[in-house]
Each structure stands twice: as structure tokens, then as C-alpha cells.
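Usage

Read records sequentially. Each one opens with the input sequence:
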Amino acid sequence: MTFHLSSRNRKSELMDDPSLNGATHRHALAGLRRINWLSQSDRTVWKEILRQARANSGERPLTILDIAAGGGDLAIRLASRAERDGVSVGDRTPQPL
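and closes with the structure output:
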């Protein structure tokens, strides 16, 4: 399969279908976790977040909005990196990461 970034595929995403059954949804989330792990996307994203957090030096909160978070695995891995590097993080939901 060849991908061309010069054109967009505007097909609806399967995971956005409200009638998607639970097993298929879990399978798709597992695939996203594998892709995120293999690509180590958290490492790439964390470098920029850490740079911004250090440049900010507590003057104002650094806000990150995760849209279409999938299963939340990227946010969880970023929270682990934040803890390791001494960066305070929070979540606006009642069940934080």
C-alpha cells in the first residue's frame, strides 16, 4: 500500500461510527496502541512539551488538549514521562490519568 500525502482520504473513520461493536472498537484501540508504541510517538511529543514547560518556568500553566485520544495510551505515557522528569500534570476529568 502506498500513501501519498499530497491528497487526503476523506472517508469516515470506522471508530467514529456510534454503531461500532465493542469488540471491533477494542481491536482498533489495540492497533493504535501498537502503532504508538512502535513509532514511540510519546518520545517525539514529550521532547516538545518538556521544552515548552521548561521555557515557561511556571509563569503560567502549559495547557495541552488531546483531541481524538483513542484509548488514552499516549496521554498515559506522557504522564509517566512527566512524573519521571518532575513535571506536574493534571487532568480535568474526574478520573485523571
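Summary fields computed downstream for this record:
- Residues 22-84 form one domain.
- The first helix runs from residue 22 to 39.
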